[in-house]
Design goal:
The complex is a heterodimer of chains A (85) and B (360). Chain A is an all-alpha fold. Chain A is 55% helix and 0% strand. Chain A has 3 helices and no strands. The mean pLDDT of chain A is 89. Chain B is α/β, with parallel strands linked by helices and 360 residues long. Chain B folds into 2 domains: 20-151, HAD superfamily/HAD-like (Rossmann fold, 3-Layer(aba) Sandwich), CATH 3.40.50.1000; 157-359, Gcn5-related N-acetyltransferase (GNAT) (Aminopeptidase). In chain B, a hairpin with a 2-residue loop joins strand 13 and strand 14 (332-337). The termini of chain B are far apart. Mean pLDDT of chain B is 91; it is low at 1-13. The chains are: A mainly alpha (85), B alpha/beta (360). At the A-B interface, helix 2 of A face helix 7 and helix 11 of B.
Chain lengths: 85, 360
């Protein structure tokens, strides 16, 4: 499955909420000081709802959420695990 | 009628916590009918009641069928106009006025009381909004003694509540009008977060926060005044209270942190923030401040978390700040941070906290 549509959805979600131009895939939204804890929560909920995956406590690592590419990679891993089970 | 009407025998099912009182004007707040009588006079004692409710943090508004310009001028003449938020003075149904006020204040109708001398108006409101407590003017004289109008906590923040609603309204309008990025809007606010050891005068509000805050609360542990007073004085604890201000005014005392300070391990027993500041990104600042202090004291930093179904955002705050789960005791998750990398503070909030030299 191609990651392109996933990345596109994530990028436009982030851009809409941050009211910025679309981000580069690897741009660290946390390091840029763009994310407060409410928005962090919204990102987690978005990922769960949009991609039908469950974010477990162990998944709550910044490395899974810090950029468009990081989130897309996380979603792909979760979906692959789901498909394998 | 389905509404909780005033029962003169005093046998009402259950006291509720009224957060907003909506007043009629003619023959209720004042005696006489503005558009018919040459002169109206204030109901005796009413100014004191309006001011007392305001001090208790109960908001007030108006639902009157009247000429808006004249009615507002009369309220000004009585020196009471500032006490009423979003007054609804027009010829539409009063139920629509009460609903408009509830929406503007973002409060549930079940926390509203409506006072009117006309049975027709009370019935109309009660029929459309059965959750509203509808009262005749006969109730006014004893209103301040009713449990429904007696909040459990009256604090400095209660007295500021009306002003805080107004500042918030100005903020929301500014945010809606702001065209740039979200972080850019926050930068325009000029936020200042004050973080200091809780003083005795803060304890009532601190106790209230532990009881009322569910969503932005890491453990849900509640503490009463005496417990907090003991913790405040305890050398083995750190009890910090946070206040937030910006160019529109104050948000009041909006956060609390309790740290147990051992020689080797500091444990964050409680971190909570009021929902008032949910979109302001200040919880992370409090956390980073405590991380820096623990590191300076040469201690490890642990934190406890108890899920309540609504506080996942706080777990995310801990986890994204770099805390890792290290254990579980009952329903209590233990997390620990290695303090190697402490997240930087966002650029749009200025942190004011006293010196930390005493930690070591």
């Amino acid at each position: 499955m191609s990651e392109a549509p996933t990345k596109k959805k994530i990028a436009s979600f982030l851009a809409r909420h941050l009211r910025t131009a679309e981000l580069d895939g690897d741009e660290d939204i946390f390091a840029a000081g763009l994310v407060n804890s409410l928005f962090a929560m919204q990102i987690v909920l978005f990922v769960e709802k949009e991609f039908s995956v469950t974010v477990e406590n162990d998944d709550l690592q910044l490395d899974n959420f810090r950029s468009v590419n990081a989130i897309a990679g996380f979603v792909a891993r979760k979906q692959a695990a789901l498909a394998a089970s | 009628m389905e509404c909780a009407t005033f029962d003169l025998t005093g046998k009402r099912a259950q006291a509720r916590s009224i957060k907003c009182v909506v007043w009629d004007l003619d023959d209720t707040l004042w005696q006489g009918i503005l558009l018919e009588d040459r002169q109206v006079t204030l109901r005796p004692g009413i100014a004191g009641i309006v001011k007392a409710l305001d001090e208790r943090g109960i908001l007030q508004s108006i639902a009157s069928r009247n000429d808006a310009r004249q009615a507002l001028a009369q309220l000004r003449a009585f020196d009471l106009d500032e006490y009423f938020l979003f007054p609804q003075i027009h010829w539409n149904a009063k139920s629509s006025s009460v609903q408009a006020i509830a929406q503007a204040l973002n409060l549930g109708l079940d926390s509203f009381a409506f006072i009117d001398d006309q049975p027709f108006e009370r019935d109309e409101v009660a029929s459309a909004c059965p959750q509203v407590l509808c009262l005749d003017t006969a109730a006014i004289d004893t209103l301040l003694d009713w449990p429904d109008f007696t909040p459990r906590f009256v604090t400095e923040d209660s007295r500021r509540r009306r002003q805080m609603y107004l500042s918030n309204l100005a903020r929301d309008q500014a945010e809606a009008a702001f065209a740039g990025p979200a972080a850019g809007f926050l930068a325009t606010l000029g936020m200042v977060l004050t973080l200091e050891p809780a003083a005795e005068g803060d304890l009532r509000r601190a106790a209230e926060l532990t009881l009322r805050t569910n969503q932005l609360n890491t453990t849900g542990d509640t503490y009463d005044y005496d417990e907090l007073n003991a913790l405040r004085r305890s050398p083995g604890h750190l009890l910090l209270i946070a206040g937030l201000d910006d160019k529109y005014g104050t948000y009041g005392r909006i956060g609390l942190a309790l740290v147990e300070r051992g020689a080797e391990v500091w444990t964050l027993k409680l971190l909570l923030m009021s929902c008032r500041v949910v979109s302001r990104g200040v919880g992370g600042l409090v956390l980073a401040h405590i991380m820096r202090r623990a590191k300076a004291a040469g201690a490890r930093l642990r934190a406890e978390f108890v899920p309540n179904g609504r506080n996942r955002q706080m777990l995310i705050t801990y986890r994204f700040a770099g805390f890792q789960e290290v254990g579980q005791v009952g329903d209590r998750t233990l997390l620990e941070h290695d303090l190697a990398a402490i997240p930087p503070d966002p650029p749009y909030v200025k942190l004011v906290a006293p010196e930390t030299a005493r930690d070591t």
